[in-house]
Write a structure and sequence with these properties.
Structural class: alpha+beta
Number of strands: 11
Helix content: 25-40%
Distance between the termini: 64 Å
Shape: globular
Number of helices: 4
Strand content: 35-45%
């Protein structure tokens, strides 16, 4: 009886501690125009407000291997718009800009007084990366917006 009690205690202690976080990790680059968002993000906490779905659990959100702080997804007549905010780290910006340039070629660059926009376009999507600048120098990684076209 003591062995059975000890076995049940150990199973209950270690059974709850083993959560499959890898199964919950969601790669945002896998989303297509046909993707059912609620099914794709099953198990990840989210809020829904006025047709926008918001995720803000960085443990589970990735875009080409980079941790994402917050994701906002909405669908309109033009397609599905995915807005991502990162952790303001220059390394995240450099990784993403390098990866997107590798995948989609050199971006169109639009420099303004306080921000720079990098944009890549294909037939099925548009990717726009925006950073804040001061006197032409990087200050903050603002957002990455992916628009998937119908």
């Amino acid at each position: 009886m003591k062995k059975l009690t000890l076995l049940l205690l150990l199973v209950s202690l270690f059974g709850y501690a083993q959560v499959d976080y890898k199964g919950l990790v969601k790669n945002i680059e896998d989303i297509t125009i046909e993707t059912d968002i609620e099914t794709h993000f099953k198990g990840v906490p989210f809020t829904e407000e006025y047709g926008e779905i918001k995720f803000s659990d960085e443990r589970f959100l990735r875009f080409y291997g980079v941790f994402v702080d917050k994701v906002k997804i909405n669908t309109s007549y033009g397609g599905k718009r995915i807005t991502m905010h990162f952790f303001d780290e220059i390394s995240d910006y450099n990784k993403l800009k390098t990866k997107l340039t590798e995948l989609y070629g050199n971006p169109d660059v639009n420099e303004r007084s306080s921000s720079t926009y990098y944009e890549w376009k294909t037939e099925s999507k548009s990717l726009m990366l925006r950073v804040s600048t001061e006197e032409g120098l990087f200050t903050e990684f603002d957002e990455l917006v992916v628009t998937l076209f119908h």
